[in-house]
Amino acid sequence: MKDIEIAQRVTPQPITEIAAKAGLTADQIDQYGSAKAKLKLPLPVKKTKRNLILVTSINPTPAGEGKSTVTIGLGDALTKIGESTMIALREPSLGPVMGMKGGATGGGYSQVIPMEDINLHFTGDMHALTAANNTLAALIDNHIQQGNALNIDQRRVQWKRALDINDRALRHVVIGLGGPTSGVPREDGFDITVASELMAILCLSENIADLKRRINRIVIGYTHDRQPVMVADLQVGGAIALLLKDALRPNLVQTLAHTPAMVHGGPFANIAHGCNSVLATQAGLNLADYTVTEAGFGADLGGQKFMDINVPAVGQAPNAVVIVATIRALKMHGGVALADLGEENVAALRAGAANLGHHIHAMQRYGVPVVVAINEFTADTENEIQAVKEYCADLGVQAILADVWGQGGDGAVELAHAVVALCDQPSEFKPLSPADAPIEDKIQAIVEKTYGGAAVEYSGKAKRQLKTFAKYGWDKLPVCMAKTQYSLSDDPKLLGAPSGFTINVREFVPKLGAGFIVALTGNVLTMPGLPKHPAALDMDISDDGTISGLF
Predict the structure, then answer these.
(1) Topology classification of domain 439-521
(2) Rounded to the nearest 5°, which phi and psi values hold at 49?
(3) In the chain, N or C: fewer CB atoms in 10 Å?
């Protein structure tokens, strides 16, 4: 049975009942229909244990890992064993929904619902971000057209337009054609909405005032004499914040088992910081004893960014980290072809387990206890499962089999008990680098300690940018690495646990509103493209409104 068919067989409880289960009163939410709601700000607070659980994974492969599915199944399992629980997830982007990766609502019997709404337009947050992003772009070009009092160099406008769909044709465009009344011609481009700085700002802001402060700090470009121009200089920060006033508020939904879940914010982890909103995580911590959240892609991307970018904003480090792996993916990291993953191959599994081991060590460096969740597939053999458990045991980490796709929370009860035990252990969080370390030192630390690489090579442009950042006092900001998700290196074909490689930084993008500098490595793109057979080809809607083909 397909995920959407499973989800459509479950009747959501009224969102008012889910809110009450989470400790929210009717006047603390605004309903968006019967199964969705937005929290009102400021966030409610009640006394809880405030345990935070981060779910991350190995490097993803076409074999599948199921991080969101495990996150949801673990949340349902914690509820099942009697713990007060909240789940916090990112919102899906239409890019992967209509493209190749799929949605972000889990799978099987571990899903958040209404999955059709969440995977499509949901509460309109993505559209609000797209509109706000493009309003700012229009205001920039209008300022240049109307006399350019700020002396903006149209060749050095940094702010791009955005669209929440994979559209490679918009990566590089020329605008302003058509004569004097159609604007000043210049080169431009589009980012996917979830890679935009406004998405990062939305996810890191504490309230409306913080949202406005961050928007005003956005660097939109440079003057003809190379001085940065910010949104505050345009005096439009309030207007842009106005368009995001509702999108800033966390969204409340539920799992198939009716565990409360926040689904809010959706930055990609390969080209952005990959974590749901700080407000959604804080809402979970304020309302429940256990908040289960995830970070996008592997521990080298979303996991590292959660620890070094999100933790300072949330104000609390994870009490436990769950690293998700599948037997299939580990065999692929060990050199097995996709078509042969159904056959037992313990030798390849042990070779590929080095990728898992690397992520375990990377997360342990933060001083937080780790457990491994083996997301079960039907073709997994007892010998393979035992080999993973033995490998992890040798590293002093427990590996637990979880059948969350087939059983929901019932398939993760052992994992839930293990997580509760880990949360009771003392831990002492320590970031990867000191906050005042230079950008180059922070990147070197990520490459060595998180990726397992040896060196960093900067392009001529990147070297010049570093000098500019030092001149403006931006040289000690946090770093958000934009890198392929498929490998620890910047080469997507280099699987397993490579070492001694060099990471190539081709360009930096200062995102002062978000509070970090983005380092673009390898060939990573901020506007993805659709595959040869996009998922959209398999989708349809019947005359009575029933959706099909949505996973």
Answers:
(1) Formyltetrahydrofolate synthetase; domain 3 (3.10.410)
(2) -75, -25
(3) N
